[in-house]
Automatic annotation (TrEMBL):
<keyword id="KW-0732">Signal</keyword>
<protein>
    <submittedName>
        <fullName>TRAP transporter substrate-binding protein</fullName>
    </submittedName>
</protein>
<keyword id="KW-0574">Periplasm</keyword>
<feature type="signal peptide">
    <location>
        <begin position="1"/>
        <end position="26"/>
    </location>
</feature>
<dbReference type="InterPro" id="IPR018389">
    <property type="entry name" value="DctP_fam"/>
</dbReference>
<dbReference type="Pfam" id="PF03480">
    <property type="entry name" value="DctP"/>
</dbReference>
<dbReference type="InterPro" id="IPR038404">
    <property type="entry name" value="TRAP_DctP_sf"/>
</dbReference>
Amino acid sequence: MTFSFKGLAQGIACAALVLGALPAAATEFRLGLITPPPHTWTKAAEAFGAELAEKSGGAHSVSVFPAQQLGNEAQMLQQLQTGALDMAFMTIAEVSNRVPNMGAFYAPYLANDIGHAAAILRSDTAKGMLAVLPQEAGVVGVGYGSAGMRQILSRGPVASAADLKGLKLRITPFDPILDFYNALGAAPTPMPLPAVYDALANGQVDAIDMDVELINVLKYYEHADTLLLSNHMMFPMVGLISARVYAGLSDDDKAMIAELMAKHVDSTLDVYIAKEPEWTEALTKTGKTIKTVDATFFGEAIAQWETIWTGKAPSLPDLRKTASETQ
């Protein structure tokens, strides 16, 4: 399968017929994220805005709104659909709530590590999955980034998967990860990022599903005892443009904006490849118990997840095939 922004533009023409009247092209775009200002995604969004201003000769600019200033991801996705928000860097998690096929990216142990995850996300298989987003979600997906691999940080000791049973475990609110932790017998607890630190501190949750960057940057380890380095799921991000806004742009602006956003979204993959070992090493110096586990640790939960999601995500077999070919 091949992918091009020209082909994407043709798909948008179809979406425009459904969306109806379109607003005039904007010169100052608003881009929303849930990540805090120091986060890799936020830095990439700011770099995208700076390069767009330069390449457009100042005709276009981007105002970046991090840390859920414009709402949570569900709210921002709705704003994108109506054209009230122009752009977002968003987890595939929220998109999968509207387009279940995107849940295939969360197959446990689809990727061996962050480098392998990057190869999968850069594949034609992954890029081809973006084609339906204008029709099914009202957004244009230009490419993928990442928030690294998922780990488990716990307030108490975890010697086996049985120790996760009954634990209130913070998750991002989307079905693939909910099904995974339900299969483990945990009590998955959806919670926005700003609430996580205090929730760990006061015992509102017993554990969290998180990447090593945020465990470091937001110091979640200060209120936990055990870190399971499991790499059990990749956690992709996608660069999105409102289909309404995109359809109102000139062909030249469509190409320039989509290509520049894709470039900076993709740059996050290289950041995580370079930085994950550094972030992981930093956590080994915190005095916490560090336990490295693999797929065998989770027992039958992975097979249960596959049973549920094989029917929900038609692209799962193709992604598994791509993953095996890119190892």
